[in-house]
Amino acid sequence: MTAQEQAEQWQRWGAEDARKWIAVPAADDDKYSRGVLGVLTGSSRFPGAAVLGVEAAVRTGVGMVRYLGAGTPTRLVMQRRPEIVTAGGRVQAWLAGSGMDAASRTSRESARIRSALAEGVPAVLDAGALELVGEASGALVITPHFRELSVALGGAGTDVDASSIAADPAGWAVRAAETLGVTVLLKGHTTFVASPGGRRLSSSTGPSWLATAGSGDVLGGILGALVATHADAIARDPETLAALAATAATLHGLAADRASAGGPIAALDIAETLPSTIAALLAG
Fold first, then answer.
1. Per-residue pLDDT reduced to its tens digit, 40-74
2. What is the CATH number for 103?
3. Other CB atoms closer than 10 Å to residue 230's CB: what's the count?
4. What is the DSSP string of 42-57?
5. Is residue 17 one of the residues assigned to a domain?
6. What is the span of the domain harbouring residue 237?
7. Would residue 2 count as lying in a domain?
8. 258-262, long-range: CB within 8 Å, 24+ apart, which pairs?
9. Considering the domain boundaries, does residue 20 fall inside one?
10. How many domains are contained in the chain?
11. Which of 56, 106, 173, 260 is most buried when burial is the number of CB atoms within 10 A of its CB?
12. What's residue 6's pLDDT?
C-alpha cells in the first residue's frame, strides 16, 4: 500500500466533528446524570499529573470527579479543586495511569487500578498503567506516546522500538489496536486514533508549543470527561471511543491554540482555557 493510499484511509477530525460530541447538560440534569469520572493518577514522584488531569476533566464538563489517588496528590488536588470527591462510589468511567511508573507503583495503587478495570465501565489508560491493558473488562482506550506504545506492544509479544513507531505512527496505531484489542490514541504532532473495529481518525490541531511537560496529563483528563459523559453511548457501541478520543485530541489542540496566542504555554494554561474553547466550539 502506498503512503497516499494509507493516508486516504484516515478521516481527519476537526472542530465540526468534535462539536457533535460535546455533552451540553439539559435543565433537568444533575451531577450524576452528567457523568461521574473516577481518577487514579499521580504518585509521590509525579503528583502534578493528578492536578492537571483533574483540572482538565472538570473544565471539559463532567458532573463529578472522584479522585482516589495517593496522599500527596490528593492534598494537591483538593487545594486546587475543593469540589472533588475523595470517597469511593459509582462512576461512569475511569482514568488511570497518568503520572505513574509501573516499576515504582505501590501494591495498593496497582490493586486499585486492577479493581477499577474489573468494574466493566469504560476506561482511559495512560502512561504508567499500560501494562495492565489486558485486565480491562470494559471498553478501553489507551493514550501512549511512541516509547510507551513500544513498551505496551513488547508486553504483548511485539518487539518494536520507539523510533520505528515514530517513522510510521499511523501504521503502528492500527497494529496496536489490532494486537491489543483496544482503541489506541497515539500522541504526536498528528494524533492517530485507531479502533479494533477499523475506525481510523487523525487530528492535527494545536501549536508546536503544545509539546510541553504535563500536556499529556491534560489530554487524559479531557478524554476521561468525554468518556464519562458518553458512557451510555459507549455501552451501545464501543467504537464510540474512537470518536471521543479524536474529539479529545482536537479540543486539546484548540485549547492550546487559544492559550498560546502564538507564544509559549504551560500545561495548566491549556486546561484553564478549555471552557472558553468549548463555548466557542459550540457557538460555531
1. 999 999 999 999 999 999 999 999 999 999 999 99
2. 3.40.1190.20
3. 22
4. --SS-THHHHHHHHHH
5. no
6. 29-198+206-278
7. no
8. 260/207, 260/209, 260/210, 262/207
9. no
10. 1
11. 56
12. 59
